[in-house]
Amino acid sequence: MIVVETASRAAILISGSGTNLQAFIDRQREGRLAFEIAVVCSNRADAYGLVRAERAGIPNCTRAHGEFADRESFDRSVAAALEPYAPDLLILAGFMRILSPWFVRRYEGRILNIHPALLPLYPGLHTHRRVLEAGDSHHGSTVHFVTEELDGGPPVLAGRIAVEPADTPESLNDRVQAVEHRIYPEAADWLATGRLRLSEGAATLDGEPLDAPIVRDF
Ligand code: NHR
Ligand code: GAR
User: Fold this and answer.
1) How many whole angstroms from 15 Cα to the centroid of ligand 2?
2) Which of 6, 19, 67, 212 has a CA-to-CA distance to 33 between 20 and 30 Å?
3) If DSSP codes are grouped into helix, strand and coil, which group holds residue 54?
4) CA–CA dist 172, 45 (Å, integer)
5) Residue 2 C-alpha to ligand 2 middle, in angstroms?
6) Fold annotation for 114-218
7) Tens-digit pLDDT profile for the chain (218 aa)?
8) Can 115 be counted among the known catalytic residues?
9) CATH code linked to domain 1-107
10) Measuring from atom 13 of ligand 2, which residue has the nearest CA?
11) Does ligand 1 come within 6 angstroms of the Cβ of 97?
């Protein structure tokens, strides 16, 4: 039997500064990524992440969501832009547009997002402020599968930090982002190498069900 090893290819979707994108680029440069960053796509022409992609020699594109009549036509245009790069893995890295059911089904089980909270706590926006207001002892960020349910796909890998008395939303943001840059490439590697799967709506790692995310303390 001949086994053909096909290299995994990822598309990274961004809207902004792209520090998570940079973490992937740095890992790729160090030869520590199990897949190739094939293309970067932004819904904002002024996203600084596009400059990072350009500098790294990674093909990139912009599809401005405002130029489309509705969500699905924007999504179809993004999918068409990615098509030539044949991605088998999609990484949302600060991507701020909710994806339509059409798009999610097209890439079912192949889309990851990172959300700055210990999911299922704090879906939605302003997570750092909400954690401080609630007086929580811990905070962090979670890599999860993207499904049609917003922030509701199975969580896979969380990075956890302790909240300090002097913390502000800004200081939490800095520490949480540093954690994201460690855990996101690791979880994406699991998906690229087939260790991580979504089957019947549930995540498995090495064939074992992930009833809760793997948690790493930082
Ligand atoms: N799409 C689906 N289908 N499911 C998810 O879980 C998704 C998703 C798209 C993005 C990231 C998510 C986050 O990490 C994400 C998860 C944007 C919004 C939002 O309300 C919500 C969640 C996330 C990202 N976006 C507004 C919209 O109308 C626009 C906001 C803006 O442009 O600033 O799309 O938090
Ligand atoms: C990340 O901290 C990510 O968790 C968060 O945006 C940041 C993107 O930063 N995502 C969301 O809040 C999604 N609503 P980056 O552009 O520097 O990677």
Assistant:
1) 9
2) 212
3) helix
4) 28
5) 42
6) Rossmann fold (3.40.50)
7) 666 556 799 999 999 999 999 999 999 999 999 999 999 999 999 999 999 999 999 999 999 999 999 999 999 999 999 999 999 999 999 999 999 999 999 999 999 999 999 999 999 999 999 999 999 999 999 999 999 999 899 999 999 999 999 999 999 999 999 999 999 999 999 999 999 999 999 999 999 999 999 999 99
8) yes
9) 3.40.50.170
10) 94
11) yes
